């Protein structure tokens, strides 16, 4: 009705405009009114074509006007006490799709018949409605249990597309309790005390009931307690303090909830991993002086290297505060171990008062990035320098050995740097600075010592580049990408970063994103399997961004190993990575109450009936012929009347 009113109003406006033009803007010749009527009729015809009403004759040609959509998520297989499942009810009412009434299954793209059972992880209706509208449908009937994840988007889409949507409720309230989330730290120290957070939920019939919650660590029960379930749409968090194992490696946490007569056990278990002492492959940053640089630098280095990153600020003698806000204060003894075993060591604020253990660690590190704070700090990093010079210094277009990473950069848009330390050391100059008057200095010294590489930063204020979006942030990323790439280019028997899944806990039915280190570009081969079963082997191409995606896995606990085929670096040659992957069948569809307001979107009394026949106006050739005739007639009569 809204569309009809809008089209009528538009027709009146364009007709009135045509009459106004001929009466007020054209020459006062005789016979103006017939010309005005021809113009008005032409514009009204255009409005009708845009409105595209249904003609009451001609039958249906082209795409079907009605679609049937069936919810294919796993919750459709859940039956209320003593009743049939929603999936069984749908099977009794909906026939397989045909050319007249196409059938679409939410969660199963391309399906035109009902599968044997619903397996989708969640119900998203909006994409299916868009597809139906693009195919020419005007009416859509949806069979669902009303657990639609994108209900707000559906309401807005129905109004925007002017669709008739009839929602048929085939579901019912069921008894179920589930785990929404298991929160665990990604990394931790051996023997460290941490907290594991378990988030619970229940359906309306279970509000206030008692359930048993167990937390397991690598299969062993760590904690078990009884709690009462919250109301529908709410969740309850249970925090369990645990102590990490004394040995390094991943710990698999699993939370399980037990409810009598639980109708949907698929959401009863959730998992998370904690890596204990992940020192190998770690990019460690230790900041000795207050500055903004570490906050900008560490995320960039983590992104461009693919290495796990951790950083600490010195807050006093023998006290270091984690940058990630994980809590606790590390001692010098803790950080000494980290610095000595880190894959890449970054020291910010290296000066004459730097701790001896850190000076030794950066000298022994195979890959180190050192920010010198004074002449003594530069000397400790192996660069002979003179006192810093004041004033503002600007990056030069004639930069040193890293100049290639700045190709096409607008140098004049970069913020100035400050306090460079002049040096005459026989090192590669990674970035040149200059200031008015012709003075020049090096902001970065690159040292290649065969089995070790280090980059020594001799200027301050690079964070100003990263602070400014656009050219500044781009230059900041390019600079540290080039430095990190040069440092990690040192070939040895280990590759920087980790080759493995981006998330150790994956969802069944979805592709598994794989993270690939700098040295492992090209193609990777992954062998994975459940204990006691035959392994599967996947060979996938790595994107230029260092990503790969493996086909979906069935639920289970997998051990995997991976290697790089035809690596372009010795760092990845003959290297085999390995680890664990947990694939869950979990879905939290029952976490939220059924949205009964969706039924109000349309009348579902007779969902498969077809209202009348006809065809859209745009599919008939006559409107176009009439429009051409009206335009031609007006043009001819205007010319004969002396109008142009």
Description:
The chain has 644 residues and is α/β, with parallel strands linked by helices. The chain has 5 domains: 2-59 and 618-641; 66-173 and 594-612; 177-277, Immunoglobulin-like (Sandwich), CATH 2.60.40; 283-488, Class I glutamine amidotransferase (GATase) domain (Rossmann fold, 3-Layer(aba) Sandwich), CATH 3.40.50.880; 500-584, Immunoglobulins (Immunoglobulin-like, Sandwich), CATH 2.60.40.10. 24% of the residues lie in helices and 30% in strands. The protein contains 12 helices and 32 strands. The strands form 7 sheets. Strands 16-15-14-17-18-23-22-21-19-20 form a 10-stranded mixed β-sheet, sandwiched between helices. Strands 7-13-12-9-10 form a 5-stranded mixed β-sheet, with no helix packed on it. α6 crosses α11 (471-488) and α7 (332-341) runs parallel beside α8 (356-364).
């Amino acid at each position: 009705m809204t569309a009809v009113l809008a089209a009528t109003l538009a027709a009146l406006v364009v007709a009135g405009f045509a009459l106004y033009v001929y009466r007020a803007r054209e020459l006062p010749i005789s016979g103006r009114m017939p010309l005005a009527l021809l113009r008005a009729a032409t514009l009204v015809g255009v409005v009708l074509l845009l409105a595209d009403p249904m003609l009451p004759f001609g039958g249906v040609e082209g795409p079907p006007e009605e679609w049937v959509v069936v919810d294919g998520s796993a919750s459709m297989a859940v039956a209320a006490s003593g009743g049939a499942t929603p999936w069984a009810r749908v099977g009794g009412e909906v026939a397989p799709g045909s050319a007249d009434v196409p059938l679409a299954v939410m969660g199963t793209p391309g399906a035109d018949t009902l599968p044997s059972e619903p397996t989708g992880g969640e119900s998203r209706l909006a994409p299916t409605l868009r597809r139906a509208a693009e195919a020419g449908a005007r009416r859509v009937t949806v069979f669902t249990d009303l657990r639609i994840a994108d209900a707000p988007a559906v309401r807005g889409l129905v109004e925007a597309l002017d669709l008739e949507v009839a929602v048929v409720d085939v579901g019912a309230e069921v008894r179920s309790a589930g785990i929404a989330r298991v929160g665990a730290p990604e990394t931790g120290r051996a023997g460290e005390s941490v907290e594991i957070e378990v988030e619970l939920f229940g359906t309306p019939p279970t509000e206030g009931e008692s359930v048993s919650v167990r937390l397991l660590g690598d299969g062993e029960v760590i904690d078990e307690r009884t709690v009462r379930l919250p109301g529908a749409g709410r969740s309850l968090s249970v925090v369990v303090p645990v102590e990490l194992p004394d040995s390094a490696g991943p710990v698999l946490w699993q939370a399980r909830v037990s409810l009598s007569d639980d109708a949907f056990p698929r959401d009863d278990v959730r998992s998370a991993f904690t890596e204990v002492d992940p020192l190998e492959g770690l990019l460690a940053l230790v900041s000795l002086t207050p500055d903004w640089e570490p906050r900008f630098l560490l995320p960039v280095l983590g992104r461009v290297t693919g290495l796990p990153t951790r950083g600490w600020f010195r807050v006093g003698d023998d006290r270091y505060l984690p940058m990630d806000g994980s809590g606790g204060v590390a001692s010098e003894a803790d950080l000494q171990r980290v610095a000595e075993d880190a894959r890449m060591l970054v020291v910010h604020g290296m000066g004459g008062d730097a701790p001896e253990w850190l000076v030794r660690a950066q000298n022994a590190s195979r890959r180190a990035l050192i920010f010198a704070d004074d002449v003594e700090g530069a000397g400790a990093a192996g660069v002979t320098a003179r006192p810093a010079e004041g004033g503002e210094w600007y990056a030069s277009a004639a930069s040193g050995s890293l100049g290639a990473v700045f190709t096409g950069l607008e140098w004049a848009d970069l913020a100035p740097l400050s306090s460079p330390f002049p040096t005459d050391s026989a090192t590669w100059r990674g970035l040149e600075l200059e200031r008015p008057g012709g003075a020049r200095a090096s902001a970065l010294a690159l040292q290649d010592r065969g089995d070790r590489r280090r980059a020594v930063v001799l200027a301050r204020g690079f964070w100003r580049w990263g602070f400014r979006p656009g050219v500044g942030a781009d230059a900041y990323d390019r600079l540290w990408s080039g430095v990190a790439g040069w440092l990690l280019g040192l070939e040895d028997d280990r590759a920087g970063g980790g080759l493995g899944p981006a998330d150790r806990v994956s969802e069944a039915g979805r592709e598994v994103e794989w993270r690939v280190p700098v040295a492992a570009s090209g193609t990777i081969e992954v062998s994975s399997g459940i204990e006691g079963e035959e392994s599967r082997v996947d060979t996938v191409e790595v994107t230029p961004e260092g990503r790969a995606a493996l086909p979906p896995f069935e639920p289970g606990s997998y051990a995997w190993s991976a290697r790089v085929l035809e690596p372009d670096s010795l760092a990845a040659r003959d290297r085999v990575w390995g680890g664990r992957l947990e694939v869950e069948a979990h879905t939290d569809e029952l976490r939220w109450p059924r949205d009964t307001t969706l039924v109000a979107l349309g009348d579902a009394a007779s969902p498969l009936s077809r209202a009348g026949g006809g065809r859209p106006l745009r599919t008939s050739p006559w409107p176009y012929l009439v429009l051409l005739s009206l335009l031609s007639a007006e043009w001819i009569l205007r010319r004969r009347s002396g109008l142009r």
